[in-house]
Fold each of these.
Amino acid sequence: MKLPLFSIALFFVVLACNSAPSESSVSSNESEANTQTGGTISVAAFEQKMKTPGIQILDVRTAGEFQGGHFNNALQANWLDEKEFTERVQHIDKTKPVLVYCASGIRSAEAMTWMKQNGFADVSNLRGGTSAWRMEGKPLESKAAREELSMAAFTASTKTGIVLVDIGAEWCPPCVKMEPIVQQLIKEKGTQFNLVKVDGGIDIEVMKQLRSEGLPTFIVFKNGKETWRKQGIVDYATLAAAIQ
């Protein structure tokens, strides 16, 4: 028995409609894919990705903005300072996911694009930045700033013996990378020197007097006189030799 041509055509139309994915499922799949590979994402998606093991969080605002409130364990590199930004992000693992944010999402969107163009595999930007985060009633971490170290107190602390001055900050990527090396030095040679930490976000006057232009910076004083200085990453052997 031959089916009418109209019936055959109708059969294939119905079959195609049943097999095609719905608009909502396509949207859902696209959203999921964007979350996995990076892109600008919602507050909810950003919060979920923060739970990813090994996630790296980068605040691209200024150090002053960072001090006013930031995500827990976030690193900081000012997008508007090209030298600072490029120097700091080179110490972030390009193979692991990175979450970036700023106040409104504009600077971090630009930073995300740059990072993807420079080999970072998975970068996600918080849509609306910290403003959107706060509007949803979510908190940011803000530590009470300690009193700024005075130049007089600094001078007194470096007046006698061998002193290693560590100018850095817990939110500075290369500073974080240097911390295990400094701790190893303390463990193995702690009786030979004193360590003085200068916070790059608080002790501004001391940094100016020392003419420190970047983080981290290491300076060795022997009986009050500067004998050695190095900015950036320093290997253990070099640091150990400097305090001899």
Note: Residues 36-135 form a domain with the Oxidized Rhodanese; domain 1 fold (CATH 3.40.250.10).
Amino acid sequence: MHRTIKLTIAYEGSEYVGWQRQPNGRSIQGQLEDSFRRIEGAPVTIIGAGRTDAGVHALGQVASTQITHAIEVADLVRALNAMLPTDIRVLEAIEMPNTFNARKSVVSKVYRYRVITGPFVSPFERRYAWHIEKPLDCLAMRDGGEAFLGEHDFAGFQAAGSEVKTSVRRISRLDVNEVDLDRTAGGGRLMTIEVEGNGFLRHMVRTIVGTLVEVGTQQRVPADVAQVLALRNRAKAGPTAPAEGLFLVRVNY
């Protein structure tokens, strides 16, 4: 009898080609499937809520799979963490109805992007934030970010060559906040851009961030964001922010 298992997973994505199994390197999905195979004694397919890119991290990625093994879920967590690399941790395993699918059952996802401004970045932060020397205008970025709220066609904010049925997505929340960092963290300021939506295109969050950073450095005015969104042209939006600053925070069901 098949059992459907929901996993909550955290990972440090610096050393991986991304979530999805690929022939050219180590992936998060591949590491999980290899570990499950040792428990199940047969190939197991892991379905992720989202396919994070190379270098992107997760605080709360969700995945689902089906197994026949009778192992208790608490023992499953311990067994997986004993086999997985230390930069991937299974935080929780829950048995779910067989109708549950980590990707298809999603209501919303929350992503957080971290930017550190100042003359340098701490070596302990270099893998987890985009370093920009110039200060950013947080208020202007908040104003510009309001244009993304609601349902829009984000064709101009996806990676070139993306193949999707529709590029329409709904953003329910976009928060821009900034705090001072103490000297032990390298000084400067930490800005977080947190976005919640019903789905995200490839590079969508990173392009939103790149566009807002142009607002924050006065290369654009806040009103430009709505115009860029309406153009649906990737060349008119800002740069794709580096992968290392992006975290998948939470998946809601």
Note: The first strand starts at residue 3 and ends at 11.
